Amino acid sequence: MSASRLRYVALSGTLVAFVVIWWGIALAVNNPREIVGPVETGTAFIQLFTDPPLTWLLAGALQVTVTSILLGFSLAAVVGVPLGLLMGRYLIVDLFFDPWVNIWYSIPAIAFVPLTMNWTGVSSTSSIAIAFLIAVFTIMINVYGGVKNISGSLVESARAYGASQTQVMTKIIFPASLPNIMVGLRLGISRAIEGVIIAEMVFSVVGIGGLMDSAADNLQLALSGALIVVLAIISLAFAEITKYATRRAVVWKESQALIRE
Amino acid sequence: MSLLKPPLISTKGITKSFPRKGETGNADGKSKVLGGVTFDLQSGSFTSIIGPSGCGKTTLLRIIDGLIRPDSGEVVFNGNPVTAPPPKMGFVFQQFGLLPWRTIQKNVELGLELRGVDSEEREAVAQKYIAVVGLKGFEHHYVHEISAGMQQRVGLARALSIDPDVLLMDEPFASVDEQTREILQKQLLQIVKGTSPPKTTLFVTHNVDEAIYLSDEIVLMGACPAKVKEVVRVDLPPQRWRYDIRSAPEYVMLWRKIWRFLENEIMHSEGFGPAAPGIDVEGNVELNPIPNETQANRG
Amino acid sequence: MASSRAVPFSLRLAIFCASLGVFILLWEVASIATGNSLILVGPVSVLKAMVGLFQNHIPQGALGLQSADAAILQTLATIVFGFGLACIVGIPVGIVTGRWKAAEAIFDPWLNATYSIPIVVLIPMLYFAVGADFFAEVFVTFLLTVFTIIVNTQNGVKYVSNALAEVGKSFGASESQYIAKIILPASLPDIVSGMRIGMGRAILGAILAEVLMSGTGLGGMMMTFQALLNTPYMMAVVLLIALIGVGVLQLPKFLERRLFRWKETESISREMRR
Known about the structure:
heterotrimer; A: mainly alpha; MetI-like fold; disordered C terminus; C: mainly alpha; 10 helices; about 0% strand
């Protein structure tokens, strides 16, 4: 059996196994307050799209969550990529920011939540802030690494041809570090999604995360499960888009990290 | 070739194909690198294998060591077919293959360690061979702390430490600079010829000078799919490091012959197109001595 | 990140202290400027609150709250147990999936899923399934950490260079010898790197579990003060969590530096993969 067929079989096999085991456990436990099986979850999922009040709720929450993710991530990218480039290129910038990146990066995302709650309240703005805070450092670090990996001779030859600092940055540094930038963005988006979900779960009133949390609080576990599936689909969609963007952006470099997924 | 003893290693009709590089997925386009290689290696002989780059020499060596399975044909070593790396074959790698997390001492001990030799004996044997390759005093250094030439000597010590019947060397000096390479060649000869009987060695190279300098016999392999085109004897004195070998007429003749062979193979296989002026269609270049007038003009 | 070859430690320390000073100053100024002690509280108040915490002054309305020591201990215990379990399970699994293609094919869909879908999303559901006691929190921490460790271990094992594999083979190494003497040492840097990143995840997992499930430990304490609108104390706990985060992560970094002296290049000691 060829490699790709084996993967396909393994994928479907494990999915089926997962659903069956889930079903079995739900049956065995037989307590809808503790665990809900795939059938009920599936039904709830369908209801999300067929039951008007639910659909309306879903649409609103979806909009909030997706925009939070996009905004948080975009902000992180807009700030993180240039900063990472500058840190990689200029030692002064590196020395200044380095300990801070170290520190902020080590703080778990959740610790930012009550802080933002104070500043921007229990709203999607807070979710965006948290997503930004978590994603920006991941992006910065990866971009930094990419710049550091650039062969000195590339920069040297550009300077020999009279390139200015700006030109070196835009024509050499940026394109050469693109693979690492893309990896950073890929990781950044998944961290941004995670940040938004965490924030929404704690706030419990906005977005899909909030909806899911309230549903769980109301012991509507099937609905909660269905919303988890919705979140999973959103995340997968984002992941696929970034993967696609990565492939398009970095045609010239074949890298293990990029190919892995 | 002596008919009194059976050869130490005997290869018969080895073929091997690899999927063509650049084509992913289905390997319909296979490129055949070895097209039926047959030759014998006599015990005590230093034999080089030379041929155009990229045509299976390294693959052949790995097949002989049992690291790769051939598509067809077989290798017989000491009367037994080779299916896995035999304990009595020692391999020296082009990229050294040293374990960076181990000291030199521990690296040389690797072969013995894998064979279950106890630590005291291991240490003693390893130290002996570290001294043989001239690295005494470097036992506790790490790989990145020593030069490329020294690293390859460690590789050699490691291969020697298991007391193999034959040494297989895969372009071992290709990753080393020219000056170091000459010194290493001399050292290698002294080591393998210094034992009695001399250490049987199978040496892959694409460097003509190296092949002639080191070998008793040279196997000339053609372009892909490679076959043995000719086996040449090298009639130069055994302790070559003592003499100005490269001026000997025998050396010059051999060099011309082998180089002409290689050039031919390369030109034909790489499609170099119409011959440049001064080179005939077959790619033969007449190498003549420098005419006297020019020598006088140079004064 | 700045290469320690090029820049002396004293200079870096000096710059750090300087920027730290600037940061604290700005913080104090900002807190005075906003005036509203709900939104932002200056460093002085936070420090006072920290001291209060450790002296077990129970602020108004927080009767019955854990003592600071108990909370710290609980959180640390959750982190350590969750992380430890994740290593015990994750490293062997990573070795197996890195070494054998069949195992990799089976595990890969799950690993890819965790790359794409944040596991944190399962926490509220897990609360109903497993409760909110210590073991539940450890389980959540474990779940969040284990995949990172598996992925990094798998990567390290998978990409052990071909050259080393050949060396092992040509010297006749058995499977167990090959794994013990070649694969493990060669992939150790990646395994430790995975542990470093996993530690960050474990901290996140523990606090998250406390916030969303049990309401105890440092995470719970933080949210309690938040609910009581006691900003100084809340920020004190946040600071504590931050300190634990930074502190705990120094161990793997230290390990990396000591263990891998044989590596010629300075490891870019930060995450390149999650």
